[in-house]
């Protein structure tokens, strides 16, 4: 928010030894409104993340959770 970003998001990924290097199964973007507070963004992401985890577990149960490798170039750490 402080950087002026207009979008953020959540992802479901497989854990690997490296920091945030695992393959990604699901991605959900979230708009950051011009007047949005950190608390409001937190609450929105909390609901998005919970719904994504429920969906990921349901897909895993059906053996339908697929993963895509992340790019290795242009990676930065926040």
Topology at a glance:
Elements: E1 7-13, E2 24-31, H1 38-61
Antiparallel strand pairs: 1-2
Describe this structure in words.
By secondary structure, this protein is an alpha+beta fold. The chain has one domain. It has one helix at 38-61, and strands at 7-13, 24-31. The protein is flat, with a radius of gyration of 14 Å. The model has no long low-confidence stretch (mean pLDDT 92).
Tally of strands: 2
Order of helices and strands: EEH
Structural class of the helix and strand makeup?
Answer: alpha+beta
Helices, by number, come to 1
Tell me the major beta sheet. 2 strands, antiparallel
Mean pLDDT: 92
Report low-confidence residues grouped into runs of 5 or more. none
Distance, first to last CA: 14 Å
Count up the domains.
1
- State the assembly state of the protein chains: single chain
Give me the side-by-side strand order of the main sheet: 1-2
Concise overview:
This protein has one helix and two strands; from the N terminus they run E-E-H. It is an alpha+beta fold and 78 residues long. The protein has one domain.
Keywords:
31% helix, two-stranded antiparallel ribbon, 19% strand
